[in-house]
Amino acid sequence: MDSYVIQVNGHGDHAPVLDVHLSTNGNSLSLGKVKGRKPRWAVRASEMSKKTFNPVRAIVDSMKVEPNPKKTMISLSLGDPTVFGNLPTNDEVTQAVKEVLDSGHYNGYAPSVGYKSCREAVAAYYSCPEAPLQAQDVILTSGCSQAIELALAVLANPGQNILVPRPGFSLYKTLALSMGIEVKLYNLLPEKSWEIDLKHLESLVDEKTACLIVNNPSNPCGSVFSKSHLQKILAVASRQCVPILADEIYGDMVFADCKYEPIATLSTNVPILSCGGLAKRWLVPGWRMGWILIHDRRDIFGNEIRDGLLRLSQRILGPCTIVQGALEHILNRTPPEFYHNTLSILKVQGRSLVCDQKSPTNPISARDISNADLCYAALSAIPGLQPVQPAGAMYLMVGIEMEHFPEFENDVEFTERLISEQSVFCLPATCFEYPNFFRVVITVPEEMILEACSRIQEFCEMHYQGAEGAQDMECDK
């Protein structure tokens, strides 16, 4: 066996490496002991990865239940408007991307915050006298999720806390906890169409509060805040000197009887990072194009927050350049009727409910009615359920009067049994920190809504117990 000794003496910035033995035995080489190095593997997951927790995935993945094989599965759980093909994007949107791809001009790296011309297009689209924007106020991101991540990362340090709605989008908590940021949950009020409990919100603010998250229109609630309510939220933020992270990905996806008010248009002094993107309004979530709009008319953020966002954006060097190149075309050439047609599926005023003649109180055979109205009317007629009328976005929240379903411990068990017996998958609201509710996605085709509501009714009628029956079951337990 031949032995070779390589000795490197340390000079300057290089640490010395001593006694490295390469022993040859036939055609094989073996590395001898390296002084100063552990003689075993010690690869461990990072603390950040250990702190990353998605409650939706944790709950859904733990639901060990099989759907009823005699019934086709109907999923009302996923907030992806493209799944069923009934909500395609507009031809102008896809044509814009085709033209950019054919041009060959957007195949390279872009600035990490996005091309200036593309940021100018976004700024022009959203700018208004009440909340003016320029290109320097726009950061392009890989979807709205990354916009939220960057906004949180620039506003909060480990050990600080953020104020998050309950019920609320689970990603806020997932991101915050992975960064070592505490989450404080403020209550939304179902009896007030999911308005914020402002007293509870303000009671949570302390010296470590870094920002307030306001999600409007709401996932999972489908609620839309009025102008007066938004002004009250801003008053709390102003009194407490807390900046706002506004998740407005569903902006303008509101029904005909409501008006969407971007919160920045109502603010005179509260600095706001507004997060949005193409995903929902243009029905292309997989294209991963989002943005942060910086509203800071009092120069409270100053250069520090802008510079921080720039540095953070450099971690992945920006979103897809092809979609960036198509942005101006998408924003300015998408016809207004496209937005109207999308909303007409979700909700249209002036349509009436047609009841089943065999059962006048059963609205499930409704004809010519939008999904939001159909869901709300159908579920309202089911004993033991209390849906809350949605006003926008793609969702409807339904309360479960658990005292009338005593065989189920909670909303997770309720929805599990709904899958196993009726093959209808609704997301338990425990995923959103709000037990004893479930969320329905209203973007599915109308015939599926009809069938799902019918099965939910059958399920509830089978398991519903009146006051006396529920008491008897409790005694049996």
Offer a concise description of the structure.
By secondary structure, the chain is an alpha/beta fold. It has helices at 47-51, 55-61, 91-103, 116-126, 143-155, 171-178, 198-203, 227-240, 302-313, 321-333, 336-346, 371-380, 411-422, 446-463, 467-476, and strands spanning 2-8, 17-25, 28-31, 74-75, 138-141, 161-166, 182-189, 195-196, 209-215, 244-247, 272-277, 290-295, 385-388, 395-400, 424-425, 427-428, 437-441. Strand 6 (161-166), helix 6 (171-178) and strand 7 form a beta-alpha-beta unit.
Question: Could you characterize what this model shows?
Answer:
- The chain is an alpha/beta fold.
- The chain is built from 15 helices and 17 strands.
- It has helices at residues 47-51, 55-61, 91-103, 116-126, 143-155, 171-178, 198-203, 227-240, 302-313, 321-333, 336-346, 371-380, 411-422, 446-463, 467-476; strands at residues 2-8, 17-25, 28-31, 74-75, 138-141, 161-166, 182-189, 195-196, 209-215, 244-247, 272-277, 290-295, 385-388, 395-400, 424-425, 427-428, 437-441.
- The strands form four sheets. It has an eight-stranded mixed sheet with strand order 5-12-11-10-9-6-7-8, with helices on both faces.
- A hairpin with a 2-residue loop joins strand 2 (17-25) and strand 3.
- Helix 5 (143-155) packs across helix 9.
- The longest helix is centred in the last third of the chain and has 18 residues, at 446-463.
- The protein is globular, with a radius of gyration of 27 Å.
- The N and C termini lie far apart (77 Å).
- The model is unreliable at 1-24 and 348-368 (pLDDT under 50).
